[in-house]
Amino acid sequence: MSVKDEKYRMCKRCVMDTTDSEIEFDSEGICNHCRKFENTVSYRIAGNNQGEFDKIVKAIKAAGSKNEYDCVIGVSGGVDSTYLAYLCKQNGLRPLAVHLDNGWNSELAVSNIEKVLKKLDIDLYTYVIDWEEFRDLQLAFLKASTPDSEIPTDHAIYSILMRVANEKNIKYILSGLNYKTESILPITWAYGHADWKYIKNIQKEFGTKKLISFPHYSISYLFYTVGLKRVKFISLLNYIDFNKEKAMAVLEKDLGWRNYGGKHYESIYTRFFQSYILPRKFNIDKRKAHLSNLINSGLMTKEEAINELEKEICPKELLEQDKEYTIKKFELTSSEFEDIMKLPPKTFRDYKTNYDLILKIRELLNFLRKRKLFYR
């Protein structure tokens, strides 16, 4: 039986610990995240399954044979989405790359995207978000005092991907998400990218503007896309023996891609949020989740992960630059920013959401995945 432990404790297998307020440990000292990985890995990761991979590629080509593009891919300039683009071209697919410019791209991210897509000969569609509206939404999340302030960006990306696919009659949306490196993440740390009700209510309570042009989707639109339009979401990296270190080496050698030095650091705000706001306000080091994924996937030992955690999250000089830049871009004073940092921490559970409904949908999708009736 799993029990809650009020004192500090680290999982016997991974590096997740009681900084996750909802973590649970079983009688062997293994956390609920590791057990979930064990129970789901068999139907979430196909592994190095060439037959299944070839079957998916063939289906994508057939479905898009009469279109200019046979799939849509999201690109951020990061490792996973860039390697996905590379993988698509290596296997003869004709993707349309979609990028959300939310105002926080680093110069290196812009350079990586342009350079890689030009070398791969992939067309790019960029959606430039209304900055004043988006700034107000991001500030609303900061004022809501939850550790998931970045989910509006994720929500907008999926909204754009679906709308582009539907408008161009493309039947496959390919994602760079992969279960090996991104399955472990406490729900209170990053809930809500699919919950428009949650995002809308945070804006209503803490924002000052109406969300008019912000790209969004409801659960009904998701079902319209999947059910009526027959669009399939596939995390293609789950069907190969994906290794992030090897992937980076390939991208650097073949495409001239350059490393950012941290997960999702292609975004200045992501870098600052994960390196400054999360650890200082919420006592959250997201590296624990990322490294625990690698441990469970057999790509890293626990000792190596602990050594990694002892390193600074981000160089102090860069962190101070990011702090100054973020405060200025948000049009805050240093005092106003510090007032936000002092607000009592909360989670999505303190606000109106569609959590119960989304949980039921996820359970249904996992039921279908086990029977190979749903990819993703």
Structural features:
376 residues; Rossmann fold; 51% helix; disordered N terminus
Write a structural description.
By secondary structure, this protein is of the alpha/beta class. It has helices at about 30-45, 50-65, 80-90, 105-120, 130-145, 150-165, 180, 195-205, 220-230, 245-255, 270-280, 285-295, 300-310, 315-330, 335-340, 355-370, and strands at about 70-75, 95-100, 125-130, 170-175, 230-235. Strand 2, helix 4 (about 105-120) and strand 3 (about 125-130) form a beta-alpha-beta unit. The longest helix has 17 residues, at about 150-165. It is globular and about 55 Å long.
How are the SSEs ordered, and which strands pair?
Elements: H1 32-44, H2 50-63, E1 71-74, H3 79-90, E2 95-101, H4 107-120, E3 123-128, H5 131-144, H6 151-167, E4 172-175, H7 179-182, H8 196-206, H9 219-228, E5 232-235, H10 244-255, H11 268-282, H12 287-296, H13 302-309, H14 316-329, H15 334-341, H16 355-370
Parallel strand pairs: 1-2, 1-4, 2-3, 4-5
Helix pairs in contact: 3-4, 3-10, 5-8, 11-14
Q: Can you count the beta strands?
A: 5
CATH architecture verdict:
3-Layer(aba) Sandwich
What is the helix tally?
A: 16
The assigned structural class equals alpha/beta
Task: Tell the overall outline.
Answer: globular
Low-confidence stretches: 1-5
- Major sheet strand order: 3-2-1-4-5
CATH superfamily: HUPs
Radius of gyration, taken over Cα atoms and rounded to an integer in Å: 20 Å
Give the biggest beta sheet: 5 strands, parallel
pLDDT average, as an integer? 93
What fraction of residues sit in β-strands? Answer: 5-15%
Classify the helix fraction into a percent range: 40-55%
Distance between the termini: 31 Å
Order of helices and strands: HHEHEHEHHEHHHEHHHHHHH
CATH topology: Rossmann fold
CATH top-level class: Alpha Beta
Whole-number tally of structural domains: 1
